[in-house]
Design goal:
The chain is of the alpha/beta class. It contains 14 helices and 12 strands. The protein has a 6-stranded parallel beta sheet, sandwiched between helices. It has a 6-stranded parallel beta sheet with strand order 9-8-7-10-11-12, sandwiched between helices. Helix 6 links the parallel strand 5 and strand 6.
Length: 355
């Protein structure tokens, strides 16, 4: 028996961020398993869409067939509570929440509360919610979503060759793969490394500047202000062989995020056997084991600098962390496993009713 599902995404499905990669892999794997999957791109700008994009979303949702099973990416769904409610009786809504919208960085208290209220209203219209980590499941349960209507389908990770490193123990190659947005906290990373300029290191930042041009511009200005033009390289968005080359040549992975609903780039770093310096934010401690690096309090500059200093100075500890990463790579979930859990959740939720 063939199953059908409509998938609503907040922009172009081909976008290269963790959330879109997850959406794309679920779509591809469901199709390979025989599902009829129809993708609808709602338009860019979520979670602050323009009036034109909202009108486009309204037309798309109104055109969905009665009784359809609809998976809506939470980046859009969380700010469409009126549309979710208007169609709750005729559509079987399932939300896909990568992380709660109110946990994005750089928001005012009023904006945080507005997003929290909006998302809560939208999620109340669903038959179920799929999240990408147990940490996000706990966040939503604490915010009133019944635990019985939450399913966890962690992202998969493709097998990858072990990084060979830079080959220069006196000038380590540090890699950060993340879109240039406030939540990823590149500015804190630069400030921490600026205090370690007497050590040998180069930072390679890979990630799109298009998600938040103001944040990207501030990062470029900070590189100049700290005088790190020769030591911080902003590569922009990379994919395929170019991205694989950056992982292959890295000695360690660094990402001081304020929050992660999972952290796919962190899992990819582990898949390459790289030591990790990150934070204890969101799902990161569930992704990065303690013996694979160091996790510090989000936003703690001295702690981040101290962890980076140990990484640069202590070769024996760095090797121990690399060994921990190599062990962790064997425990990472596969995309096939993730897709199976995703499909099981869809089948379970499709028969339910909103509570």
């Amino acid at each position: 028996m063939s199953h059908a599902v409509h998938v609503l995404v907040p922009g172009a499905l081909a976008t290269r961020t963790g959330g879109f990669i997850y959406d794309r892999r679920m779509v591809d794997t469901l199709r390979a398993a025989g599902w009829q999957v129809t993708v609808h791109e709602l338009g860019a700008g979520f979670p602050a869409p323009s009036a034109e994009v909202l009108q486009q979303a309204a037309r798309t949702i109104a055109a969905l067939p009665d009784g359809a099973l609809v998976v809506a990416d939470g980046l859009a769904f969380g700010v469409l509570p009126d549309m979710a409610q208007a169609h709750a009786r005729r559509l079987r809504w399932v939300a896909l929440v990568h992380h709660p919208l109110a946990l994005e960085s750089g928001l005012s208290a009023a904006r945080q509360q507005a997003l929290r209220d909006s998302e809560r209203r939208a999620l109340a219209c669903t038959h179920g919610v799929i999240v990408t980590s147990p940490a996000t499941a706990r966040d939503l349960a604490a915010d009133g979503v019944p635990a019985a209507r939450i399913a966890v389908a962690e992202p998969g990770t493709d097998a990858a060759p072990l990084a060979r490193g830079s080959g220069n123990p006196d000038a380590l190659s540090l890699l950060c793969v993340a879109s240039l947005t406030p939540r990823k906290n590149h500015l804190l990373l630069l400030e921490a490394l600026a205090g370690l300029r007497s050590r040998g290191w180069t930072l390679h930042c890979v990630g799109s500047a298009a998600m938040d041009p103001a944040c990207a511009a501030a990062l470029a200005q900070a590189v100049m202000r700290f005088g790190l033009q020769q030591r911080v390289l902003l590569h922009g968005e990379l994919a395929g062989d170019a991205l694989a080359a950056r992982y292959a040549q890295a000695d360690a992975f660094v990402l001081p995020s304020q929050h992660e609903g999972y952290g796919m780039a962190l899992a990819e770093a582990l898949a390459h056997g790289l030591p990790v310096i990150s934070t204890r934010a969101g799902a990161i401690p569930e992704t990065v084991p303690a013996d694979a690096g160091a996790l510090v309090t989000p936003g703690d500059l001295p702690a981040l600098r101290s962890a980076l200093q140990r990484l640069l100075d202590d070769a024996a500890w760095r090797a121990q962390c690399a060994a921990g990463a190599r062990a962790a790579r064997l425990r990472l979930p596969t995309w096939e496993h993730s897709a199976a859990r995703f499909a099981d959740a869809l089948l379970r939720f499709s028969a339910g009713v909103p509570q």
